[in-house]
Amino acid sequence: MTTIFRFGKHVVPFTDIHDINVVYKYHDMEIYVDLELNGGAQLSLNLPDSLTFMEQFLKKIREEKDIQVQA
C-alpha cells in the first residue's frame, strides 16, 4: 500500500483514490483539491491539505515516471 496523503491520523492510500478535481485561483495563489475515494466518498481539502496532497502527488508522479528534478 503506497500512502499518497496523510492528514491528522488519517491515511489515504494511492489505490483508494478514484479521481481528483483541482480548482485553482491563479491570482489569489490558491489551489483546492477534492478527492473521490473508492466507494463514492468525497473529501474536500482545505488550502494547506491541498498543497500537501499536491506535493505528495507530484513526488509520486516523479518517482513512477522516473523524472529527475533539476536544480
Report the average pLDDT across residues: 88
Strand content: 35-45%
Global morphology: globular
Count of DSSP strands: 5
Which range best describes the helical content: under 10%, 10-25%, 25-40%, 40-55%, 55-70% or over 70%? 25-40%
Could you give a short account of the major beta sheet?
Answer: 3 strands, antiparallel
Distance separating the two termini: 30 Å
- Residue ranges: pLDDT <50 for 5 or more in a row? none
Question: Class by helix and strand content?
Answer: alpha+beta
Number of helices: 1
SSE pattern: EEEEEH
With strands numbered from the N-terminus, the spatial order across the biggest sheet is: 3-4-5
> In angstroms, what is the radius of gyration?
13 Å
What does this structure look like?
The chain is an alpha+beta fold. It contains 1 helix and 5 strands. The strands form 2 sheets. Strands 3-4-5 form a 3-stranded antiparallel β-sheet, with helices on one face. A hairpin with a 4-residue loop joins β4 (30-37) and β5 (42-44). The chain is globular and about 40 Å long. The mean pLDDT is 88.
